[in-house]
Amino acid sequence: MDARLKRGQKTKRKITETAIALFHERGFNNVTVDEIVTKTNTSKGAFYNHFASKHEVFAEQFKQIDQFYVDHLVPQLDAKKPVMDRLAQFLDLQMTYIQNEIGWDVTRTIYEQELSTERSSYFLNPDRPLYGILLDLCQEGIDNGEFKPGYTAHDIVTVLIHAMRGVLYNWSLNRGKISLKDEQRVLFGVVLEGLFRSEL
After folding, report:
1. Pair 115, 169: CB distance under 8 Å
2. Which CATH number characterizes residue 30's domain?
3. Which end of the chain, C or N, has fewer beta carbons within 10 A?
4. DNA binding happens at which residues (predicted)?
């Protein structure tokens, strides 16, 4: 990798980290590109060389969040445990991370921005690593006979993703005043119990 490309990646990472920190601190709508540029000691040209808008910074964060799941959450799952236990653990780790590290205001803003009709939503990107994690687990559960018959891995992941969006949206509506960890445990406890074969 040449020096120019390395500098570009370093600048992009710096802008992303600073922008996300500002969004956490003051809210997405209260942060301007000018402020991000000033804080990072870069230029508007540098910002727009990497991002078309503030929303594009969110897109970059999505990638980082999903990669965090791959690098840090999946390795914590015990492959010897049933898929139901691993799914429950993954969801608990995921929601704990979102509650403690992402925060309700950034989560709310993500949902707000993803509703825009001007661009496709990253939520619907079938190549998201999050979907890959869930599909692998659910297919393993099907192969092991842990799920009720009649469901495909895609069916189960769709249910989990819809429930995931629901609990995050509700948490955002409540402005983080309820425990995301507790809410997800109740919701996903019911969802997983409904999907798994009780006779196992």
Report:
1. no
2. 1.10.10.60
3. N
4. 32-51
